[in-house]
TrEMBL record:
SUPFAM superfamilies: Interleukin 8-like chemokines (SSF54117). GO terms for cellular component: extracellular space. Gene3D superfamilies: 2.40.50.40. InterPro entries: Chemokine_IL8-like_dom, Interleukin_8-like_sf. It comes from the Eukaryota. It comes from Ardeotis kori. Residues 1-22 form the signal peptide. Residues 24-86 form the Chemokine interleukin-8-like domain. GO terms for biological process: immune response. It holds the Pfam family IL8. Keywords: Cytokine, Signal. This is CXL14 protein. GO terms for molecular function: chemokine activity.
C-alpha cells in the first residue's frame, strides 16, 4: 500500500512539473528579425530550470497587426544590438 501511494505521489509531482514547464518557458519558437522603431516594450525573463536560455520577449506595434509579442534568440547579434539600443533609449527617458 505504501509503495502504491509513493508511486501515485511521484506521478502527481511529475505531472505538475511537466505542466509548469509550459507555463514558465514561453520561448519554444524564436521570432523574426525586427525593426527597432516598432518596439514598444522589452522584457528579459531569467532562465528557469526548464528553459535552456533566458527569455527575451519583445512587444511590437505596427499599423497592420497592432500589438503582438515575439521571443528573441539571446545569442543572435541583432538581439544583442537591440538590448544595447533599448537601454540607451530608456536612459534618455523616452
Amino acid at each position: 500500500m505504501k509503495l502504491l501511494t509513493a508511486a501515485l505521489l511521484l506521478l502527481f509531482i511529475a505531472m505538475c512539473l511537466a505542466s509548469a514547464e509550459g507555463v514558465k518557458c514561453k520561448c519554444s519558437r524564436k521570432g523574426p528579425k525586427i525593426r527597432f522603431s516598432n518596439v514598444r516594450k522589452l522584457e528579459i525573463k531569467p532562465r528557469y530550470p526548464f528553459c535552456v536560455e533566458e527569455m527575451i520577449i519583445v512587444t511590437l506595434w505596427t499599423r497592420v497587426r497592432g500589438e503582438h509579442q515575439h521571443c528573441l534568440n539571446p545569442k543572435r547579434q541583432n538581439t544583442i544590438r537591440l538590448l544595447k539600443w533599448y537601454r540607451v533609449w530608456k536612459e534618455k527617458g523616452r
